[in-house]
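Cross-check.
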Amino acid sequence: MAFAAQRNQAEGRGLSRNRRPNAARSRGFGVRRLLMTCAAIVIALVAAPYLIAPFYRSIDPVSTPMLWRWATGQRVERIVVPLRQIARPLPLTVILAEDAGFCRNPGIDLSAIREALQQSDDDIEDSRGASTITQQVAKNLFLWPGHSVVRKVLEIPLAIWLTVVLPKRRIMEIYLNIAEWGPDGEFGAEAGARFAFGIPARELNAEQAAELTAILPNPVERSARRPSLLIRRLAALYVRRAATYPTHDSCLYAH
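Predicted model, tokenized:
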């Protein structure tokens, strides 16, 4: 009897020792599974824009600022119009003001990025001049506002990919339809033209197009409806540029 009791005790201790390694292995497996799940989610989020972008050849996208305003119950006004219904001075002026190499670059301008970083002493917040129109489209469609190194790292390959899967004309068309052009949720050239001048985008003249372009950095504080002296000076500069370089928009109208 005593021998049987001792044997049972020994077996119990052995089972207890076996359970501890099994529990440790189970916890380790749970941690690995959690890490793998998190990694899969991150990969899916990073890959999603690359899978979605080709569909924007024919689908009119909404921007993340629009989605944020909808989600927070704020006003959004946008009327999507094709490029042929936007007066030609507007895309030309936008190109000359925002990205003079738009028709030639692959979605990014490496020389502008280097120059902006040197001027800003490696401060990414001062690198606004480094963003091409295509980069701005990538940011507004798939990323978040503000300035950060992480966003720039994600934005640059996305801009290159957009140039691969979308023609320049379509990139500009998307840009003009998602840019914010008013202080109360006016998105796109049509809403911007109607708010500022009470006319559709196809009727904009060179001066009006230049004034709309001049407010693009901050349409909340800048106004084409009531242009300040700064806006008028910038608009005059853009009008002169458009008269000097009338073919900088050639990629938009080539057949």
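Residues 183 and 220 are 4 Å apart (CA to CA). The first helix runs from residue 2 to 52. Passed to J.P. for a second look.
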